[in-house]
Design brief:
This protein has 294 residues and is of the alpha+beta class. The chain has 2 domains: 7-119 and 273-293, Rossmann fold; 127-264, Probable inorganic polyphosphate/atp-NAD kinase, domain 2 (Tumour Suppressor Smad4). The chain has 6 helices and 17 strands. The chain has helices at residues 18-25, 27-33, 72-85, 108-116, 189-192, 277-285, and strands spanning 7-12, 36-39, 52-54, 65-70, 89-93, 120-134, 137-144, 147-152, 159-165, 168-175, 177-181, 204-210, 220-223, 228-232, 240-244, 247-252, 257-272. The strands form 3 sheets. It has a 6-stranded antiparallel beta sheet with strand order 7-6-17-14-9-10. The chain has a 6-stranded antiparallel beta sheet with strand order 13-12-11-8-15-16, with no helix packed on it. Strand 4, helix 3 (72-85) and strand 5 (89-93) form a beta-alpha-beta unit.
């Protein structure tokens, strides 16, 4: 057992009976290892759960483990809090796909008991730092665990993105938008746009045009030590929408540019001891499954 895992914080879908039942199932483990259970939610409409204390955000730093309950979207939000407060995180999959939340909800009690006893894998993943440059003024707008996505606010209009890497001009991409992804995000929006799957331990970035007008504009994999600068041509007279991990963060004009680099922060994932990334790919993407043989 790892003595440091004493305080466990639950995030995500906390309003149904699932957490209450989970706490009941863990009661003997809680008593045996003298664990303290907490939960956090920005809203104040949470039901009281016996044995689980409510905390404020500034208390998250004191936690030893975060357990996110929900799908991959919930896990992304929870992971940003985990990274901000430097707390390791694991996820219970109550969503549909579950690339990030790899604990089966029917087996969660056994999986958490193993983690509490020190039987787990750890994995540190990189984040994006995203800044907006307007003339000489630079403004930080946020981190991304999966990706930064650029779209036009008006549908039916193309966007022309000029990409530079470490100050060197690379290409002009005209199309529906543009994605800068981490390896974690390579199985998200990037994948549906023709991007490759990258092992999440790779120290790389992925640049993916969305529906490029020129078919020779292909995805690129570059080192995460690079600084990426995205500019826009004068034809982009409409505002441009920026999303981080699927959440709209900002709208900018075509005169602004975006600077992306690797964050100093990381997020530490805790996986069950039997976790296998490639098995996750096989099961989620149905590799090797032929319906004709079903």
């Amino acid at each position: 057992m790892i003595d440091s895992i004493k305080k466990i914080l639950f995030l995500g879908s906390l309003n149904d009976d699932y957490l209450s039942n989970l706490v009941f199932d863990l009661s003997s483990t809680v008593d045996k290892y003298k664990l303290e259970l907490y939960r956090y939610s920005p809203s104040n409409d949470q039901n009281d759960i016996s044995g689980v204390k409510q905390v404020k955000e500034d208390q998250i730093t004191d936690m030893d483990l975060i357990v996110s309950i929900g799908g991959d979207g919930t896990m992304l939000k929870s992971s940003k809090l985990a990274s901000k407060h430097n707390v390791p995180i694991t996820g219970i999959n109550k969503g549909r796909l579950g690339f990030l939340t790899d604990i089966n909800p029917d087996l969660v009690s056994a999986a958490l008991k193993e983690i509490i006893q020190g039987e787990f894998q750890t994995e540190s993943r990189i984040l994006l730092d995203v800044k907006i440059l307007n003339k000489d003024k630079e403004s930080f707008i946020g981190h991304a665990i999966n990706d930064l996505v650029i779209n036009k606010t008006k549908t039916g209009r193309m966007i022309n993105v000029l990409t530079s890497i470490d100050g060197n001009y690379v290409n002009s991409n005209e199309g529906d938008g543009y994605i800068v992804s981490t390896p974690t995000g390579s199985t998200a929006y990037s994948l549906s746009c023709g991007g490759p799957i990258i092992n999440p331990n790779s120290d790389t970035f992925l640049l993916v045009p969305i529906a490029p007008h020129t078919l020779t504009n292909r995805p690129m994999v570059i080192s995460s030590t690079c600084e990426i600068k995205l500019e826009f041509t004068e034809q982009n007279d409409d505002s441009i929408e920026i999303s981080l991990d699927g959440e709209i963060i900002s709208e900018i004009s075509g005169r602004d540019c975006i600077i992306i680099s690797k964050s100093d922060k990381r997020v530490k994932f805790i996986h069950p001891n039997h976790y296998d990334y490639y098995e996750t790919l096989r099961s989620k993407l149905f590799w090797g499954h032929d319906k004709r043989n079903a």
